[in-house]
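Changelog excerpt

This revision adds worked examples to the README so contributors can see how folded entries look when concatenated. The first example is reproduced verbatim below.
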Amino acid sequence: MTTLGFRVDHQQTQRQALSPRFQQAVRLLQMSSMDFTASVHDVLGRNPFLEAEDGDVETDDAERADGADDGSELPAYDESDGLSAELSMPAEGFDGDSENDRDLWRSDSRSSLPHADDGELSAIDAMAVEISLSAHLHGQLNLLPLSPRELLLARAIVESLDDDGYLRTPLEALTDLEVLTPQVTVSDMQAALRRVQSLDPCGVAARSVAECLQLQLPSIACPQTRALAARIVGDHLSALAARDIHGLARALGESPLRVQSVCDRIRRLDPRPGWRFSNERVAYVVPDVLVRKIRGVWSVQLNPAVVPRVRLNEVYAALFKRHRSADNADLAGHLQEARWTVRNVEQRFSTILDVAEAIVKRQQHFLEFGPMAMKPMGLREIADEVGVHESTVSRVTNNKYMSTPCGVFELTHFFSRAMVSSNGSACSGTAIRGLVKDLIEAESPAAPLSDVEIARQLAEQGLVVARRTVTKYRQLLRIEAVDRRRRHA
């Protein structure tokens, strides 16, 4: 007979666990400037203990050492206390009387928002209203003397257009969309299509690129140029796209100069007429760090446009401390999040500034003389200089940009592995890309250099680079292949 036994074992293990504040700090650190700004604004909108602060950004060492965003010390806070500490912390500066709560609330002038006077337009009322392509076309259809049937078919065409303004749906498929008497035919839809194609913008409702360009040819004033452009668009569109001027001249029996002039006029047409009504926002690159040379010394400072200044609302924090109870755990969490956010925002920009200063210190020759003077540099060098881990430097440099007199670069642009030349000196990949660009810019237009020839010339200068590496660098520089460059010449 088997006897069952029970035993209790006690083991001690050590594990690394990230605190909620550290997790938030890491998440904010690796965000781009646009995502970070959106995240901070989201916290400002839902956290009553946070408020935005107006004023310019000061990036001097004294302020960063103080760790206060507005120049004043933040309330002492032990993050290990948790929510229970917020509920048990004694209120300071209050005698328990609640008569002055209304005055204390009103004393915070930042809690009131400006409103427009009666009869006056506010800033929101004065904002321009964006209009879509379909709304623009429907508005024009409403002004035309159309019967209800014709208007309905034209609206069906408009609603079938894509974002480019093209009609990708066959007309045969559109005949089944509307149940009318008599039955809608293909000829009816063709008439509706021609009616929509006559609207603004010119070229809308085209079914191909050639048709879109043909619809815009009447805008060419010169009859001879318009006739030649119609021949090119109708019969030689592929040669136009390939920029084969000499082939077009032979096929059309015209001089290359004449064909080049007509092709340039065609390229001024709009192949995507619907894009001008697109509601998509263009995400422009905004530099996080500004680098300028002042009195012979390179200076690094944060870009004030991407530094949201936030601070703790002391009035709301004082009111919470005075009226706290066990039922206010949610508010205690908001207060804790507000304090974390203020400190993490400061830590993010302090780390970015430290890393940028270390990069500029090592890459001053690049700022002075251009890509040819770029030094090879790794993450470990910057991490040792700043006193952080390599992973932190990696998070800081991704999606962060630096504005220099040479242009705007991502911080990762300054990092590259060392490539040893024949004489034993180290050269960065950025410098080699600069050499490739210089060789292509100095080539003869009639005899452009191939990737193999570029690799051979680099080897003559002591840089042994494979042909596929030259191809990769050329593609990163957005330079066309030798055949396309020769054809353009």
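The second example, added in the same revision:
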Amino acid sequence: MEFGNQVWLVSGASSGIGLQVGLALRARGARVAFAARGADRLRTLVAASTAGAPREIAVPLDVTDDVSVRDGVRTVLGAFGRIDGLVNMAGNGGALQRWDAAGGTHLREMFEVHVFGAERMARAVVPAMRRQGVGTIVNIASTVAWVPMPGAAAYSAAKAAVVSWSGALRAELEGTGIDVRVFAPPHTRTEAGVRWPLPLPRIFEPDWVAQQLLRSLQQGSPLSLPGGNLPLLWLQRLSPTLATRLMNRIGFSALQRAQEHAGG
């Protein structure tokens, strides 16, 4: 896949991995729509990066709102005339906490952003991609979609739903020219990632993760798990009990660290 002159819409693009993905696409010659709820911050970032060059735009967009998504996609089509790729980066895992301490709306909120938000975005861009006869949708998963982690029950469930939905959508869109990919980043040094003090040997940088996403697109991989997490999925298949024990150890250790930090 070559990105030159393609148009990419990236949600959650005001910071972290989303911002770096947008910048990496721009560096490869793509025209980029940086979309997020923080419109003022987006405009500042876009203006600072290229002095207001017309090859990129800031798009105020809330993935939990139907009207906002519809208007945001219309803005992109009005500016560039097409959308070749969508990266559904909006969302984060929130704070680590036990399910019974999270409150009755937590699961719904996770699904609203990660599952229904991604679905809203896809539903908004697919008609344009059908007319073009080509397009790529990248949905963001996590290792905990396959091996759920204590302290992140709602996030694990939401990402598992994203993986299942993406697989079915990919099959349904076969033959239309629209491809659906799943990308699962490793633990990354972002504002959201800091809230998960996982006992892991390495935390990855957002720009490295962004480059891995673009690499996976060029390789045509329907599923990519960079950063060493793929072996855990193989372990899940070979020994689900052992994989669960390993993730439970990570989750409960991170929960304890988070509680200690919150307690000062």
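Reviewer comment on example two: The chain has a mean pLDDT of 93. The CA atoms of residues 73 and 125 lie 7 Å apart.
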